[in-house]
Amino acid sequence: MIGQRGRALALATTLGLGIGLAGCAPSSSESGSGSGGEGGETTLTVWSWRVEDQAAYEKIFDAYEAKNEGVTVDFKTFKATEYNKILATGLSGSDGPDVPQVRSYGQLQPTVASGSLVPLDDEVDLEGWDDNAVASAKGTDGSLYSVPLATQTVQMFYNKGLLEEKGLEVPTSWEDFVAMNDALLADEITPIAVGAKDDWTLPIVHEVLAAPRFGGADFQDAVATGEKDFTDPDWVASVQVVGDLKKYMPKDVTGLAATDAQTMFTSEQAAMIPGGSFDLAVLQKGNPEMEIGTFQVPAPPGSPEGSGPTTAGWSDGNFAVSKKSEHQEEAMELVRWMATKEFGQMVADEVKQLSAVPGVTYGDPVLGEMAKSYEANPSPYLLLTDFRYGSPAGTDLLGTGIQEMLLGDKDATQVSSELDKGVKSWFEPTKK
């Protein structure tokens, strides 16, 4: 897919980070960007959209400060849905961060195109890292602009105690999966917690429930070369899988937010929830007594030959250096540290995410389980890794489409056709 990304550079700026929106970024008196303290001390500001990780990052940066005398890291978080505009405004002015947390793949490109980031090719060594992770941190010009933070995966979380209480086991076939859902429903327990009011979650739900049905990584290769597109019968059938499983979701699924679905799961009203590895800390905090497990949903009937259970993944939350930082040397040193195993291990231990740094170990058994599943049967979160390089983005189109399907306004064929038409307005397949 890398070949088509270069052709998408001109389109990347249409993704709309909203540069120039006055008033979104904090004032200089609030941000402390590039401020120097008495005795030659330097304060580096780090911005992020991960409000829920505030305490974890403060602990991580305390460890950095302890080893780097004279440097203070001021970690600031903003609402995720407002972050892109806030960051664009901050980077274009004098009140932005020294080290911004940036998006990945196609969503990184507007920030790169704005000229706001320092290229890192000669500063950071990512040799031996996962190719998918490194691709997430590069511009369409092939240069490296950030250090990957985490490998995110999507999978089915489940309540181990609840399943054991009901005499149910992790399914190893689609028939077992359906039978388990039927048994839970008969016992008046919602089998699968989904919050379809937030349409951005629905491509994740689709990946968890139906990636084997469209063919996972093999389908990615076929779409990349133009051999197949999103009107392919296997893709349409995979969208239909989500519609067929609606009966196992909350009755008011399209009226529930993602946080409502998480609450259903942590309050043990629902047995399972499809989600990302980034959800783990939230779920554990919501019910510390619950024993959470994960599994790969078995392949639905009709899946292409050789297409089995898979764990889709991507990289996200990367860190970069602002060109307008008044302390670029210190900012660069911090970002170099973010590529070390020391930082990666703290991300795993404190943030409870799968670090993008190779060689990290996982004390949390659920994190370890997710890491092993991804290593054993990886596939790309296709619409995020390959179809966010233009507008409309693939994830936006599928999210809205599945929401409309669950509302009864469209069928799987219509959803797939509109996805295909939307991405073809900017996507060009590579040639073999």
What would you say this structure looks like, in words?
By secondary structure, this protein is of the alpha/beta class. The chain has helices at residues 2-6, 9-12, 28-31, 54-67, 80-92, 109-113, 131-136, 160-165, 174-186, 202-214, 216-224, 233-244, 258-266, 280-286, 328-337, 341-351, 365-376, 382-385, 394-406, 412-424; strands spanning 42-48, 71-77, 99-102, 150-159, 190-192, 270-276, 292-295, 311-316, 318-319, 378-380. Strand 1 (42-48), helix 4 (54-67) and strand 2 (71-77) form a beta-alpha-beta unit.
Q: Decide which structural class fits the backbone.
A: alpha/beta
Q: Helical percent range?
A: 40-55%
| SSE succession | HHHEHEHEHHEHHEHHHHEHEEEHHHEHHH
Per CATH, the class of the largest domain reads Alpha Beta
CATH architecture verdict of the largest domain: 3-Layer(aba) Sandwich
What does the average pLDDT come to? Answer: 90
> What distance separates the N and C termini?
11 Å
Fill in the CATH topology of the largest domain. Answer: D-Maltodextrin-Binding Protein, domain 2
Low-confidence stretches: 1-39
Q: What best-fitting shape do the alpha-carbon axes yield?
A: globular
Protein name: Sugar ABC transporter sugar-binding protein
InterPro entries: Bact_solute-bd_prot1, SBP
Pfam family, one: SBP_bac_1
